[in-house]
Amino acid sequence: MNKGDRRVEGTLMVQVRAVTVALATTALLVTAGCSSGGRPEPAGPSVSAGTGSTPSRSAPARSAAPEETPPAKGSVKVLRTVTEGLDTPWGLAPLPGSGLLVSSRDKGTITRIDEKTGGKTLLGEVPGVAPAGEGGLLGIALSPDYASDHMIYAYLTTASDNRIVRMLYDERKPSGEQLGAPDTVFKGIPKGVIHNGGRIAFGPDRMLYAGTGETGDRGLAQDKESLGGKILRMTPEGEPAPGNPFPDSVVYSYGHRNVQGLAWDGRQRLWASEFGQDTWDELNQIKPGDNYGWPVVEGIGHDPKYHDPVARWHTDEASPSGIAYAEGSIWMAALKGQRLWRIPLNGVKASAAPESFLKGEYGRLRTVVSAGGDKLWLTTSETDGRGTPVKGDDRLLELEVG
């Protein structure tokens, strides 16, 4: 499909059959997942048995509702392009009622999008953002008390570190002046030209979670005293959350290379997407205090010291960023892979091989969030310096999934 073809407007229905994975070739998978040599031949995405989350006071309370049974095969329908012309969109946060907030990594701004008309309103520029490489203004999230405090949280790269700030949003003020001065909630997360992490989200427990990267310094991922290569869990004020696995620490899990997506399923279990290096990208089900292996293990290691991923992909098929939960599945946006992955869940593992949709249709895909029910919001990422933007990029899409 040429560049023009992948931008065809209108309704798109894609249905693909699940990929059958030869799980019996365990020895081959172990060799490929731990190899330090050349890239193995692509074998497509694979799933593992995974490890379930054990109830504990450090994990969000589970819902009593039974697991939603996903359909045997999925579908994706692009309902419409909501808006175009976004500059390096990264974070996306739906507002209560109507409207979506989107952050610009390189411009350091937050913009409100009218999801009905596609109209844009600039809230303002976030002071202190120092964009470079993969750093800048990254994830955004609304306060769990947004209805009363109107606070927006943002993960950003400064001249010295990565940090989380919060700002008052006052939509009564003129465009460009609607953001209050940032209040630093948490600082000191290592920064780099690469692997800055950046996804933040409030969990069902009303605690703030943040995915960080190891900045290219691999040793940080295994160092529990470092904030790099971790998933962090903290109170809205930036203190270690009650019940965290390590005393007086915000570290929730470690051994990560570059966490880019966070989402909770119907049982309130945390899932995270992670960039691999040369061989395997990962989707992990997160248990507090667990070690996810990097840099000792990339992909499946079959070593009890490290938590194996539930699903993995070769890096040219994924390079995953945001994830969302809808209709019994995790939906994962892929950058280099230029597609949307569906990972159907059943219990604590993937119930079938992942399916891909929209391959090459819209280029690099950055962030996907739930729009309620069977709807998703999805942003492209063609203007991030690694894409090949065409007229209209970047875009916000509305999807219907099943």
TrEMBL record:
It holds the Pfam family GSDH. This is Glucose sorbosone dehydrogenase. Residues 86-386 form the Glucose/Sorbosone dehydrogenase domain. Residues 53-67 have a biased composition (Low complexity). InterPro entries: 6-blade_b-propeller_TolB-like, Glc/Sorbosone_DH, Quinoprot_gluc/sorb_DH_b-prop. Residues 32-75 are annotated as: Disordered.
